Amino acid sequence: MxxxxxxxxxxxxxxxxxxxxxxxxxxxxxxxxxxxxxxxSVAFGCKMIGTGKAWFGDLEVLIDGVPVQE
Length: 70
Fold this sequence. Notes:
Number of strands: 5
Structural class: mainly beta
Number of domains: 1
Order of helices and strands: EEEEE
């Protein structure tokens, strides 16, 4: 996840410390960053490195515990 200001990246964090290897059942993963007033946009995504298949479902974006609608 990346928090962007007008001209610079304010904060950046990934889930590398939560890496999944091999077969795994469904599990919740989360990334949290404090959002300051000068954040203009938030970028996020999912990635897979290597071969195989990955499924991503029930993505939820929350700000201060409140779901973002748009």
